[in-house]
């Protein structure tokens, strides 16, 4: 039987994240914030794992002489990604499993914020309300003493910080799998990025894909226009799902089923973490090779493709979708002309302020 550690700390302190040193190609990043025992030494189980970063809490002497805010009992839930939906779904639920193992005496979920100067996006509360409706969220903004802190193990895949389908976590997230709309028109869906902000990155001429899939009988879905509940209902209802690669894949993973057929259109290199995350929650490995001809990366991103624009090989993409049974039309999809690519890149640059630099892709 799978196990996970749970440590109880009496008269403990939780401190917020107040400084962060960003990671680079040469070194790991770091951030402070954490849990302290009654003797004010650091609680090792409370150290937050995050890919490319190290959690280094400050020495207790820095705040020991200041009056501490005080409260009752809480479950320490670590870093709250309060601005980026994908990181919230994939990182901030990794300790929440303890909520289903403890009584109402631990009805508070204590987080510290990743972005200390930004508000908490509505999707945070909307998601937590679906999973643990009887628990309240406590945001630690100053060093805060608790009568008792339950510190759960962070259930992540190695040091990546990304959640995986540990049995305890799957049990806690079970309410999400019960959400259904029973809308029979949503059995085949294409999850598009074509309406996202120009700075978010994506596929050149993605609106063409919307049209191609619509002609194949797919419902075109723009997840940013749906509530959190509607998105989970969608992923529970659908039988055939095609994703334009992005945060929606992390959300789908939490409710993935082995009977669903999933294909990913990659806008960067093929990321294996999506596959293992989906499979760990009980889904089938997503299908789809990377069919990228060229990447255009903003100069200020120094080669990081997070905001890049990808030019796909539409012919190869169409052929693979046809071979795998996701589409039926055998007429090849038109490849965008060089002039139309330049025109769309210029428009993205005008809106976003980015200067795009071409980067060849190896296959």
UniProtKB/TrEMBL annotation:
InterPro entries: Glyco_transf_61_cat. Residues 85-254 form the Glycosyltransferase 61 catalytic domain. It holds the Pfam family Glyco_transf_61. This is Glycosyltransferase family 61 protein. It comes from Endosaccharibacter trunci.
């Amino acid at each position: 039987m799978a196990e996970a550690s749970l440590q109880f700390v009496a008269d403990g302190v939780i401190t917020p994240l107040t400084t962060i040193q960003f990671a680079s190609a040469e070194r790991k990043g770091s951030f402070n914030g954490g849990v302290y025992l009654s003797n004010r030494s650091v609680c090792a189980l409370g150290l937050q794992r995050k890919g490319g970063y190290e959690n280094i809490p400050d020495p207790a002497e820095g705040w020991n002489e200041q009056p501490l805010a005080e409260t009752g009992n809480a479950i320490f839930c670590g870093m709250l990604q309060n601005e980026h939906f994908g990181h919230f779904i994939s990182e901030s639920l990794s300790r929440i499993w303890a909520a289903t193992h403890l009584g109402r005496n631990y009805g508070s979920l204590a987080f510290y914020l990743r972005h200390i100067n930004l508000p908490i996006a509505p999707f945070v509360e909307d998601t937590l309300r679906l999973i643990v409706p009887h628990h309240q969220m406590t945001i630690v903004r100053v060093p805060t003493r608790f009568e008792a802190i339950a510190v759960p193990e962070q259930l992540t895949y190695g040091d990546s910080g990304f959640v995986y389908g540990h049995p305890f976590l799957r049990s806690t997230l079970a309410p999400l799998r019960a959400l259904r709309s029973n809308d029979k028109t949503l059995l085949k869906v294409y999850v598009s990025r074509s309406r996202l902000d120009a700075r978010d990155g994506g596929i050149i001429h993605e609106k063409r894909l919307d049209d191609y899939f619509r002609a194949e009988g797919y419902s075109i879905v723009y997840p940013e226009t749906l509530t959190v509940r509607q998105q989970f209902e969608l992923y529970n209802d659908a039988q055939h799902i095609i994703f334009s690669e992005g945060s929606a894949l992390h959300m789908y993973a939490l409710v993935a089923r082995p009977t669903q057929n999933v294909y990913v259109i990659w806008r960067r290199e093929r990321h294996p973490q999506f596959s293992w995350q989906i499979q760990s929650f009980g889904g089938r490995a997503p299908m789809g090779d990377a069919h990228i001809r060229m990447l255009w990366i903003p100069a200020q991103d120094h080669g990081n493709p997070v905001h890049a624009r990808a030019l796909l090989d539409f012919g190869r993409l169409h052929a693979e979708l046809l071979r795998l049974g996701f589409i039926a039309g055998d007429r090849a999809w038109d490849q965008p002309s060089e002039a139309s690519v330049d025109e769309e890149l210029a428009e993205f640059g005008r809106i976003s302020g980015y200067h795009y630099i071409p980067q060849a892709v190896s296959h």
